Amino acid sequence: MSQPSLILYSDANYFSPYVMSAFVALTEKGIPFELETVSLADAENLKETYSALSMTRRVPTLTNGTFVLSESSAIDEYVEELFPAPTFPAIYPADPENRAKAREVQAWLRSDLMPIRQERSTEVVFAGAKCPPLSAEGQQAAEKLYAAAERLLGDKEHLFGEWSIADVDLALMLNRLLLNGDAMPEKLAAYAQAQWQRPAVLEWLALSAK
User: Where is the GST N-terminal domain (predicted)?
Assistant: First the structure.
């Protein structure tokens, strides 16, 4: 079977945590793909060319021939189904309940913890920015994140024993705080730092550092 021709559209700075998730998913699978950038600062995502391509007018967007898909968790799941294990490395747990939990983690991180996302932008993670102390709402969100992460991890190295794409998404949220110098339980700090050493993550970090 010939390989599909995949194009992943990213923000021009490579600061999007959602593009990062899709990028890591494709890279972990070992699938060749092209990377195209869209300048959000110049509102290129709202202009005719990209608007005609992407229904959501957001990044990431993945194209596979005439098929177009946006939203990072949808892209992650599509890639997993299109290039399944054991032929390709798995990015989701094999166990149905663990797979469902991984999707739960991804959905939660994208829909909750808004104070963290507002007070600790990804410029902290990818550009070394430093932010003021968390507000009361931000501190409450951080405590909620830590409690959930500790409960999910237990004594494991990864959320579900073996690595999954949900580990990168969780580590990104933790690193918004850790890389700003915010206090964090030692185990979670070690977990976030370890996730940041995966080769696919390092490839993304090299892009955002340019």
Answer: 4-87
